[in-house]
């Protein structure tokens, strides 16, 4: 072991009062055979255990294995699982559509869908929210770079959808009655594989300021 410090996990088993099994440990700071217990450390584990339950103080030789840090949760916590967080990017697009089922009669379509069945189309200012879930990266502090999420969603969905006729011009909606429910499920099928290895948690699509649909891949 070179001079310095390290943090890790290990298994140390000794008899008598020095029994320590499967405990987290902090590798002692060793400098040419002279190391000191950090503040707050209350137990010592090593080959050079004191005889007859005696107490060892001061410096200890470099073959010391570990010191127990049960009294130092802040050190042990560095190995804890990172929190899982959901982050969301909001994107906007405008599009026209007609809500129409060709399997129904014109009268049935008009009765069920009302103004949304207008044969001359109508439009919406849509808002799409894309939520990604994962652990916080210890280096960046991010779950995912939301700029990357934006670029992927714009390429795979927004650029193909913005200022388009959803019934006629959008390949991933081909053959679908473009209700908000059908749109969001179709978008999931495009966005989810494109974002991997990031985990897509939820899509939310606002059709108006009062109406939105959500989908979580089920």
Helical residue percent?
10-25%
How many beta-strand segments? 9
Helices and strands, in order, run as EEEEHEHEHEHEE
N-to-C terminal Cα separation, in Å?
A: 52 Å
Could you name the ranges where pLDDT drops below 50 across 5 or more consecutive residues? 1-35, 40-51, 54-76
* Structural class designation: alpha+beta
Could you please describe the fold and organization of this structure?
The structure is a single chain. The chain has 218 residues and is an alpha+beta fold. The protein has 4 helices and 9 strands, in the order E-E-E-E-H-E-H-E-H-E-H-E-E. The longest helix is centred in the last third of the chain and has 16 residues. The two termini are 52 Å apart. The N terminus is likely disordered.
Attribute tags:
218 residues, alpha+beta, five-stranded mixed beta sheet, four-stranded antiparallel beta sheet, 4 helices, elongated, disordered N terminus
Helix/strand layout:
Blueprint: E1 4-9, E2 24-30, E3 43-45, E4 66-68, H1 73-76, E5 84-97, H2 106-113, E6 122-135, H3 146-161, E7 164-165, H4 180-195, E8 199-206, E9 212-215
Parallel strand pairs: 5-7
Antiparallel strand pairs: 1-2, 2-4, 3-4, 5-6, 6-8, 8-9
Helix pairs in contact: 3-4
Give a short synopsis of this structure:
The protein contains four helices and nine strands; from the N terminus they run ββββαβαβαβαββ. It has 218 residues and is an alpha+beta fold. The model is unreliable at 1-35, 40-51 and 54-76 (pLDDT under 50).
């Amino acid at each position: 072991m070179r001079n310095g410090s390290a943090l890790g996990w290990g298994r140390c088993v000794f008899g008598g009062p020095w029994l320590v099994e499967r405990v987290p440990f902090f590798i002692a700071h060793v400098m040419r055979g002279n190391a000191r217990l950090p503040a707050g450390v209350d137990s010592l584990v090593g080959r050079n255990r004191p005889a007859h339950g005696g107490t060892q103080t001061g410096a200890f030789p470099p073959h010391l294995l570990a010191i127990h840090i049960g009294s130092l949760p802040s050190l042990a916590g560095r190995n804890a699982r990172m929190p899982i967080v959901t982050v969301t990017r909001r994107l906007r697009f405008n599009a026209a559509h007609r809500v129409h089922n060709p399997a129904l009669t014109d009268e049935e379509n008009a009765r069920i869908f009302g103004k949304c069945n207008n044969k001359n189309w109508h439009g919406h200012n849509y808002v799409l929210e894309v939520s990604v879930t994962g652990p916080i990266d210890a280096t960046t502090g991010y779950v995912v770079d939301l700029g990357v999420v934006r670029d992927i969603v714009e390429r795979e969905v927004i650029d193909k959808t913005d200022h388009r006729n959803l019934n006629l011009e959008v390949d991933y909606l081909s053959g679908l009655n473009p209700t908000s429910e059908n749109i969001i499920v179709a978008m999931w099928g495009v966005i989810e594989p494109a974002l991997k290895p990031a985990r897509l948690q939820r899509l939310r699509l606002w059709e108006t300021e009062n109406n939105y649909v959500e989908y979580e891949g089920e």
